[in-house]
Amino acid sequence: MREIVTAVEMKELDHNTIQKAGISSPVLMERAALKTVEEIVQRLKNKEKEKILVVCGTGNNGGDGLAIARLLQLRGVRTWYYIAGKEEKMTAETAGQLKTAEYYQVPRVHNLDLDEYTTIVDAIFGVGLSRPVEGSYRDVIMALNQLNAWKVAVDIPSGVNGDTGAELGIAFHADLTVTFAFRKAGLCLYPGRKFAGKVIVADVGIYASDKVKPYLWQTEKTDIHFLPDKIVDGNKGTFGKILVVAGSPGMCGAAYLSASGAFAVGIGMVKIVTAEENRIPLQTMLPEAMLDCGNDFAKDLDWCDIVVIGPGIGTTYQAAEKVQWFLEAASGAAKPVILDADGLNLLAQHPEWKQYLTSRVVMTPHMGEMGRLTGKKVSELQKDRIAAARELAAETGAVCVLKDACTVTAASDGNTWISLAGNPGMATAGSGDVLTGILAGVLAMFLNKRTELPDTGRQAALGVLLHGMAGDLAAKEKGTAGMKAGDIVRGASEVLKNK
To answer: What is the b/e burial string over 155-172, where b = at least 16 CB atoms within 10 angstroms of the residue's CB?
Structure first.
């Protein structure tokens, strides 16, 4: 799991490196420029035919750009620079880089004649930008976006909010972003992630500090190795018993997919508590699962290790009674709960049930369900997904898995994980039900106590990663247009087989 930083954290890390480690700002600027130049040069198809324009702002991002222009020119690549903004507003470091560029006679252009350039390097604004891009800056970025040229962003595409990924009026559309020291949150979340293109995290000599401890993490494909293998002397009871409280009369698809997701990641036993009308189709589709279509809830709860509540259960009075009973009883028995779909919709209708939520509960809302839980509009939640997930987790004490194109997992202590795995094909009916089953299965992997991860939040983040990787395998086989939720189930087994 790799640390991700906010704009404020990055500023503090910069400050510590300069003030405590004694590495000066100009040295860091040179390192950043050199790393960017290396990434650019190795991707140039024909160096002799290249014409590169570096567009620089007056802040330190512009200083990086001026150093990049100089280093490219010294490597024999035809490069020009353009200053967007007034020179008198330059930071001291950027003014110094301008003086150096002039000394080395790097050519400068004062009027943008953009059609002649093959590559554009954006060094206008850095991660600290928080206001909308307006005026001449907006005109420049708009003109750059219209070019048929290869585009590179320095640290972050100008106009992208470094914390939320939001487009601040207008944003540069990069093919490649070279960011420094740590990936910024805005490069993970949409639309910033889309504007960034391929992201390279370059080591420039800025490292984590005891003074600045990030609470934000990116899960990586290699993290799948944290999931323990089945122990050789285990049995079906050892590998976990999951109770899936799901499905309304005649609606059994969600229950089937959740149970299938759990089986796909190695759960030992699954029992589905559902309506009598679902008995025959579920027994036909998933004979491996046990069924209880009665009302002996206490016996069912005593049997299981983990409870899944909500997929396809409906929002009737009878469904509400069932959800409340299992929430309250699971809380009293200190059993982990995955609360999904209609379970969340019923929670929104009965906020007093939040008293049953603990750190052992994982809530999995999509944006619509999140809106109902918080009373906020989806458009408002999308402005800062990380803050939204953290606020709900802090309020309830539970783990919040906020499902979106980039899923955010937040624990009540503020620790938060972002998954970059997954693809648009996963926006299909039943995908969330599969995630619910996978999450339950992942939590069950740690029940035997032989291999532990310290908290439910991190376990949930691994489940989200596994779900995303499974979706990526399904997309590779079926394509994003043709894949279904069942393909994600099969993909999950394949990911674990090859981990």
So the answer is: bbbbbbbbbbbbbbebbb
Residue-level pLDDT at 407:
96
Over residues 17-40, mean pLDDT = 91
d(CA 158, CA 135): 14
Residue 490 has pLDDT above 70, yes or no: yes
Q: Which tokens hold the place of 92?
A: 């001291």
Can you spell out the DSSP letters for 182-199? SEEGGGTSTTHHHHH-EE
Structure tokens at 116: 């002649």
DSSP one-letter code for 403: B
* Residue 114: predicted pLDDT: 80
For range 305-316, the mean pLDDT: 96
With a cut of 60, say whether residue 450 has pLDDT above it: no
Q: What would the mean pLDDT of 262-277 be, rounded to a whole number?
A: 95
Average pLDDT for 348-374: 97
Interval 75-132: pLDDT, tens? 999 999 999 989 999 999 999 999 999 999 999 999 888 878 999 999 999 998 989 9
pLDDT at residue 191 in the model: 95
Rounded CA-CA distance 194/58 in Å is 25
Are 339 and 362 in contact, with CB atoms under 8 Å apart?
Answer: yes
* pTM for this predicted structure: 0.92
CA gap 257, 3 in Å, rounded: 33
Question: CA-CA distance, 354 to 362, in Å (whole number)?
Answer: 12
Long-range contacts, stretch 480-483, CB < 8 angstroms, 24+ apart: 480/423, 480/424, 480/425, 481/425, 482/425, 483/425, 483/426, 483/428
Q: Strand 416-419 relative to strand 408-410: parallel, antiparallel, unpaired?
A: antiparallel
Which of 66, 68, 104 has its CA nearest to residue 83?
66
Please, what's the b/e burial string for 18-28 (b: 16 or more CB within 10 A of its CB; e: otherwise)? beeeebebbeb
Quickly count: other Cβ atoms within 10 Å of residue 413's Cβ.
14
Nearest CA-CA partner of 100 in 77, 57, 71: 71
C-alpha to C-alpha distance for 264 and 257, rounded to whole angstroms: 10
CA atoms within 13 A on the CB side of 317: 0
Confidence of residue 208 (pLDDT cuts 50, 70, 90): confident
Longest dimension (CA), the chain: 84
CB 480 within 8 A of CB 423: yes
Pairing of strands 2-5, 216-219: antiparallel
Distance CA(304)–CA(444), nearest Å, equals 11
